[in-house]
Structures are given as structure tokens and as C-alpha cells.
Amino acid sequence: MISLSDWNIIIAWIVYSILGLLSLYLFRLNRLLQKTPDEVRKCSCSRWTPELLAKTYQEISENPIDYTSQLPPKMDRRYIVTGGSGLVGGFIVLQLLARGNSPESIRILDIRKTERNDMITGPATEVDFVQTDITSAASVEAAFAKPWNPSVANLPLTVFHTAAVIIASDRSAYFYGFPEAVNVKGTRNVLAAARQAGADIFSYTSSASICVRPVETFVPPWAKFPRHIWQMLDEQDFSRPLRSREDFFGNYPYSKAVAERLVCAENDELFRTGCVRPANGVYGNPSDNTVGTPLSKDIFPTWVPHIVQSFVHGANVAIAHLHHEAALVKKDSPQAGRPFVVTDPNPPITYDDLYSAISTLSIHPFRLIVLPPVIMLLISYCIEWYSILPHKFPLLKNILPEIRGEAKHLKPGLFSITTHLIGSDANARKPVEQGGLGYSGVLTTLQGMTLEILEWNREHAAGQGGKTRKTYTTSVSLADRIQELASVGISSQSVDLGVQTSRMWS
């Protein structure tokens, strides 16, 4: 007969064995998450050395990049740019002006005025701005109905719809209402107002994240890699039925996929529509998340330095939209009613290349802390579980404190968007005669990221001796602010979300 003490020993042995096996499994999983598949490594470019970065920085500093000559020819049209204060929309406005379109022929519809340095001086300041909440049909209709300058009032109308909210980490149905309101309902409102206003061209900024499958992280111990650890960003999914929300890595890509289908379904002879899908990680201004966020930090924790991705500069996305417009202007355009992925004109880089660029070129100190990905993954599940509790059990809303700041976005969805993602813009690069856009990026990732750091350095050297960093309203922080206002019943249109609060010194 087994004594009580023997049973205690057996139970302790079982518990320790389970914990040991679990530790070994997590150690193995951590190693898998830190590896780069050979297929991905072969696709990537050579690493950025300090010498290459310093040389590129000096070249751009002494000979600024002027790609005006590479813009599609000016067309005599009117332009409405939703989200024109932001990253992609702002570059569209600047490029329209650079190629000769008058400020009177352009109108920005946005929730806030711009904080971009390149738009608060020069001709961009003469462009009409209408504060607009795209979730409100009345607000959108009023913005479109505003009279135009008589000199352009009779010109045909193009709409570039770039406005959206980007919260990549949320995947629970409890949090879908917000991106649905802006990205789906907002797009529907803009489409309706554009038709009512007589627009004949509608170019929508979609997202290549639509085709990203959720990464299946917890795989058997003998698996070589987690499933979907690397993926291609292309347009093949568009020819298939729309997946269910649960088959997307988060609410954001699903809302963009639904909106993309809405836009393309509206295409007809009198109202030609289509979409541009920027590859993962749009950058180009300190207000972006990709480069601007780490630039703003002294110490930057990360678990993705080895991750290989295709990035795209906002200027490249904008020029793709102008090529898109030029293709849609032609009747019976095969480019209409479909999406096109666009990337920078170079092989993908690693996040470590980006971090090397910042540590080498920024006038501010920058130190990287590399964290074990499996630890961050486990924490992300805890944060997601905690954030869902008040929605499942409403009585907890007044008891549990809300997680705030950047930590609230550490959820499992991030591990699907921060995996190896290789963009293919082969269709966009095809000549227009072959059904493509004739697109070619004007900035490589090396040039684009170096240029952003150069502009950051110049802006900070001009104020406070470069000793402190400015804070910017990123797409994520703006979405958080709008969501907070909506939760307490305050319209974001009635609150100043512009430069007064977002450009204070930190």
C-alpha cells in the first residue's frame, strides 16, 4: 500500500515533470520564433552597414532627392483627399501640388489639421481643409457639397480615400465596432457622397495586411517553424470569397477587406473605382509608427530585429495612387474594380536594418533591448484576456482598471503582423497596356528611412538644441484618442485633435 508521503512524492514528480516539459517546449518555441527561414533570408537585401548608412545620409543631405519629374503628368481635375492631413494623404496632396495642380483644385477632408512640417508652409497651406467625421454621412455630404472656387468648379472630380483607423492588435469581436464604424461605414459614406458629387474616379488606400493569415504559434515540438511564419503579400485573395473575420489576424485587416470589396463593387463605367494596397509598414514622416515610434525613444524594447519585411514609403504609395488615377481615367480600364499591392523598389529589409539606421544616424541616443518573443507572446495573451473580461462580465467595468498606453496594444494579433512578410508589386509594375499601373517607386527603403531620420535631425536641431524629442500623433495614438472620446459620447469633431496638443515638447 502506498503511503501518503509516497503519494506526495509521486504528485510532486509529476508536477515537476510537466513544468520541465513545458519549459523545454517554450524554450524550443522561443528558438523557432527567433529564426529566419532560408526562403526568407534569400529574398532579403544585404544588411545596412554603418558605412553605407553614413554615405547615404551624406548624399541625401548634400543632394536632396527630387522625384517631381517622375510623377504622372498633371490632369485638369478637382481632388478630394480624405485623410489628407496624414501620411499617405499628405503625400498625395504634396505631389498634386508639385506636378502643377493649383491649391484651389484640392480639398482635404480630415478629422484634424496636419502636423506635418512639409505641409505647414508653402502651397499646401493654401489647400482647403474641411474638418470631417467620415462616420457621419451628414458630415461627409456637407464636406463634398461645399462650393468650389469658380475657376475649378466645372472640372471632373477624383476622390482619393486614405482615411482610416489602424489598430492592428485587436482581434476580438468585442472591439470590432470601432474599426467597422470608421473603415467600413466611413468608406460607404465617402462612396455615396462621391457619387452624389459627380466624381468619376475613386482611388482607395487599402492594405496588404488583408492577405495576412494568422500565425499559428503553438505548434508541435517537432515542427520546423510556426505555421504562416512567413507569407507573401499579393492580391490572390481578392479572387476568392471573403474570409470570415476570425480568419483574419485582427479586426483592422478584416475591416479593410470589407471596405475594399465595397469600393471595388461600386465600379462601373461612370464611376471607376479601385484600390492600392501598401505593403506592411508604411513610413515617411515622424508621425508614422514604423520609423517615427522608435525614433522617439531613448530605449526601445523589441522582439523582431531578425524579422524580414517589405516596407513602403508614403511618397511611393502616393505616386502609386496618381498612376492608379491615370489608369482609371481611361474608359474600359482593366485596372478598375481591383486592388494592387505596392512596395518600395528593393528587396525586403530586416527590422535590425531600421534599428541600425536610427542608432547610427539619429542625433538622439538610441538603445535596443531585445526581448524573448515567447515571453512577450504569453504576456500578450494575458493582456488580451484581461481586456476582454469587462465586456464578458459588465459588472467588472467599474472594478478592473483599464490598461493604458502602449501596453494595451500588446496582443497576439501583433505576432501575425510582425512576422516575415514579403510584398510582391509585380502587377502594379506592369505597363498600363498590360493591365498594370506602370508603377515604380521613387525612393528605396534605404533612401526613404535615411531621409526621414535626416528630416528628424534637422527639425530637432532647430528647436531646443536637439536635446528633447517632440511627440507626434501617430495613427495608433490618434485612433486611441478618437476611441476614448467616442466612449464618453464626445464627438471628435468638437475637440481639437490637431497641432496644439500633438506637437508639444516631451
3D structure, described in words:
The protein has helices at 4-33, 38-43, 50-62, 87-98, 137-145, 177-196, 251-265, 292-295, 314-328, 351-361, 373-392, 414-417, 426-429, 445-461, 475-487, 499-502, and strands at residues 78-82, 106-110, 128-131, 157-161, 201-205, 230-233, 272-278, 282-283, 299-302, 308-309, 312-313, 339-342, 349-350, 367-370, 420-423. The chain is an alpha/beta fold and 506 residues long. The chain has one domain (38-371, 402-491): Rossmann fold (3-Layer(aba) Sandwich).
How do you describe this structure in short?
This protein has 16 helices and 15 strands. With 506 residues, the chain is an alpha/beta fold.
Name the descriptors:
506 residues, alpha/beta, Rossmann fold, 7-stranded parallel sheet, two-stranded parallel ribbon, 16 helices, 15 strands, disordered C terminus, oxidoreductase, membrane, NAD(P)-bd_dom_sf, 3-beta hydroxysteroid dehydrogenase/isomerase domain-containing protein
Secondary structure layout:
Layout: H1 4-33, H2 38-43, H3 50-62, E1 78-82, H4 87-98, E2 106-110, E3 128-131, H5 137-145, E4 157-161, H6 177-196, E5 201-205, E6 230-233, H7 251-265, E7 272-278, E8 282-283, H8 292-295, E9 299-302, E10 308-309, E11 312-313, H9 314-328, E12 339-342, E13 349-350, H10 351-361, E14 367-370, H11 373-392, H12 414-417, E15 420-423, H13 426-429, H14 445-461, H15 475-487, H16 499-502
Parallel strand pairs: 1-2, 1-4, 2-3, 4-5, 5-7, 6-15, 7-12, 8-11, 9-14
Antiparallel strand pairs: 10-13
Helix pairs in contact: 3-10, 3-14, 4-9, 5-6, 6-7, 10-14
